[in-house]
Fold this protein.
Amino acid sequence: MEPNREHFRDMTFCDFKSDLNQQQCLERLSTAFPDSSPSRSAIFERSCSRPSTAVTDENIVRVRNLVDQDRQISYCSMQASLNID
């Protein structure tokens, strides 16, 4: 089983709660998951993003379909179509 984005988020949270710094967290994940670990910027430059419930396989497919239908679709229209606040 390959870990997904949510698994990595949980692991980095655990690392920070265990008083590991960002570099130690990155090294630990890179050693354990050399092909699928998060990038350096994902660990060092955390930002506010959509809740994990908004990033689903179903929503990804729906966004692709919306963009395929209308390449000029606005972010607000997409947000309304997906019922994401």
Q: What stands out?
A: Residues 3 and 36 are 8 Å apart (CA to CA). Residues 50-85 form one domain. The helical segments are 5-17, 22-32, 40-44, 57-69, 75-82.
